[in-house]
């Protein structure tokens, strides 16, 4: 049965791959985007997840188009990398506001409808960096690590309503964000990945599809690494 799905930051990269994967599974999929162009073939709503008003308006449009959201994937995120000694307070707080508080806004807006329906799936897209840390990414790592505690608290709150909450933690993924790195940087990173290569966005998307599906009905509060072994042991 087709479900109503919302993927934030779904107009490119990992988010777009997730949206297309869930659409291919038969779900009605909507995406939010903050900038750029909306993707072809998907219902798209412009939304800045740092704005509660934007999130509320986006959900209202999605609900009018395809019904109450039954699966939400909080994927929207930004980076502002720099060393802590020269990191501005805005560079720290703005990354947390988008990545972590944005996930809070999206989850909060979705959860009342899920509780009434007594079913739902909430999936947060974190990062291996949130588990292992990364020099020059204290803000990003903090935001992604925060998702784990947030998700596990929600998993405990919502389990009695048959709502699962899980985290996917991608590693080094072949997207526009990593395309700007030099060949030497790519080789250095791939050299410490046990599987020796970047992930394809579709590999992250398939894990999200699993967590959103019936086969994962007994999984909640989990952190699933999709990182080629990069974060092994964390």
UniProtKB/TrEMBL annotation:
Residue intervals passing through the bilayer: none
Occurrences of domain Ketoreductase (ranges): 3-176
InterPro entries per record: KR_dom, NAD(P)-bd_dom_sf, Sc_DH/Rdtase_CS, SDR, SDR_fam
Origin superkingdom: Bacteria
Homology family: Belongs to the short-chain dehydrogenases/reductases (SDR) family.
Protein name (database record): Beta-ketoacyl-ACP reductase
Species whose genome carries this gene: Actinomadura parmotrematis
């Amino acid at each position: 049965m087709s479900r109503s799905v919302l993927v934030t930051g779904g107009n490119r990269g990992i988010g777009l791959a997730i949206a297309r994967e869930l659409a291919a599974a038969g779900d009605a999929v909507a995406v939010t985007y903050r900038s750029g162009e909306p993707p072809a073939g998907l219902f798209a709503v412009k939304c800045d997840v740092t704005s509660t008003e934007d999130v509320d308006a986006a959900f209202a449009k999605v609900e009018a188009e395809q019904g109450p959201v039954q699966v939400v994937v909080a994927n929207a995120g930004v980076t502002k990398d720099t060393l802590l000694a020269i990191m501005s307070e805005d560079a720290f707080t703005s990354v947390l506001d988008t990545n972590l508080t944005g996930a809070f806004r999206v989850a909060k807006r979705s959860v009342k409808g899920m509780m009434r329906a007594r079913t739902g799936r909430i999936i947060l897209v974190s990062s291996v960096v949130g588990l292992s840390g990364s020099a020059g990414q204290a803000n990003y790592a903090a935001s992604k690590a925060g998702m784990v505690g947030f998700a596990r608290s929600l998993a405990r709150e919502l389990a009695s309503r048959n709502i699962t909450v899980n985290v996917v933690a991608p590693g080094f993924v072949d997207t526009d964000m990593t395309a700007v790195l030099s060949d030497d940087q790519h080789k250095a990173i791939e050299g410490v990945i046990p599987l020796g290569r970047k992930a394809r966005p579709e590999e992250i998307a398939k894990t999200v599809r699993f967590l959103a599906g019936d086969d994962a009905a007994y999984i909640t509060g989990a952190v699933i690494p999709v990182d080629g072994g990069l974060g092994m042991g964390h």
